[in-house]
Design a protein that fits this description.
single chain; about 350 residues; Immunoglobulin-like; seven-stranded mixed β-barrel; 5 helices
């Protein structure tokens, strides 16, 4: 351990760029008088990163901004090394690798800065084809003399979440994949792609004269064999308070990642209350039905539906209004029933 620590200190003082050197010393070298939790994997990663920096011309590309704001597009801006060789840089690409697999994305060049937006998963994007896992990133430089050069992409990654009605999406709205950009112990920027829990996301609600039609799509992996929708009465004014009982079981039709079910008006007769819905499958379990794949900060304030009359029988009308809870769960509020002459 002693020889390794001496070697790492020498690397940190001689071979690494200043920003990376400070991060390295703070994490591993300035720990006198405390127990060092320094695993073999972390030591080897530190040495490999230092060697990569040295091979890349003594300096890596530093992140100015990196984030996945809409859940599926990587927004990236990096500052190129000040000494990338004698020839000027002609083109820049982002390279991400996992094992023997690689994918590349072109970046726009503007002086010593390079950046762009790279779609990760939608429409057959690179990570959707290659799968989930931890991807290590590098910057590939094409010089004016035709030669190529690769340098590591170094953090730290510290992004400010946007203010306003939207948030940085936690998962891709089309595939349900979660993408995370971070800098590890060595400062090397990585992209983590992982699958979240299954989601039942509502894309549209139509209140017809005698029924309510709900359409949506699944996020993540959902097995739909033998599935149905449970329609529950929500007791109390706030979701999660009071008892709830299963009132109706509704058939659901699925087509790949899409689903559709109908709430007949007769099932709402005489019930001036609020209903919630759950997708139930013997393989997947129970999923709450609502808007969970949007980037809205407050779905119940953004997505609104008009109150519509609904025929619950030949001589009875009930007014219904679809809406969403603060957590995004679909709610169907029924009120003010009328008897027709």
């Amino acid at each position: 351990m002693g020889r390794t620590l001496v070697t790492l200190r020498r690397i940190a003082s001689e071979r690494l760029p200043s920003a990376f050197r400070e991060r390295f010393r703070e994490r591993f070298c300035e720990t006198e008088g405390r127990e060092r939790a320094f695993t073999r994997a972390a030591r080897m990663a530190s040495i490999r990163s230092a060697v990569a920096v040295r091979r890349g011309g003594g300096e890596g590309a530093s992140v100015t901004y990196a984030g996945v704001l809409d859940g599926g597009t990587l927004n990236l801006q990096v500052r190129l090394p000040s000494r990338a060789g004698h020839a000027p840089v002609r083109a820049v690409r982002l390279v991400a690798g996992r094992g023997r697999r690689r994918w590349r994305g072109d970046l726009d060049l503007d002086g010593d800065l390079a950046g762009g937006a790279i779609r990760l998963s939608e429409d057959g994007g690179p990570l959707s084809r290659l799968g989930t896992g931890l991807w290590r990133t590098r910057i590939e430089l094409t010089l004016a003399d035709g030669s190529g050069l690769e340098v590591p992409l170094l953090g730290p990654v510290a992004n400010v979440l946007p203010a306003g009605p939207t948030v940085a999406a936690s998962l891709c709205p089309r595939t349900g994949t979660v993408y995370t950009v971070d800098a590890g112990l060595t400062g090397h920027v990585t992209i983590s792609a992982s699958r979240p829990a299954p989601q039942a996301h509502v894309t549209g609600v139509i209140a017809d004269w005698d029924r309510v039609v709900v359409e949506g799509r699944f996020g993540g992996t959902v097995r739909t064999a033998g599935a149905e929708v449970l329609m529950r009465r929500l007791e109390g004014r706030l979701e999660g308070r009071g008892g709830r009982e299963v009132c109706h079981r509704l058939p659901v039709t699925t087509d790949g990642a899409l689903f559709r079910f109908e709430v007949p008006g007769g099932s709402l007769a005489g019930a001036e209350t609020t209903w919630v819905f759950e997708f139930v499958s013997p393989w997947t379990g129970t999923l709450k039905v609502g808007r969970f794949l949007d980037d809205f900060r407050h779905p119940h304030r953004v997505v609104h539906h008009e109150r519509r009359p609904l025929a619950t029988s030949e001589r009875s009308l009930l007014y219904v209004r679809p809406g969403y809870s603060p957590a995004g769960r679909l709610q169907l509020s029924c009120s003010h029933s009328e008897e027709l002459p």
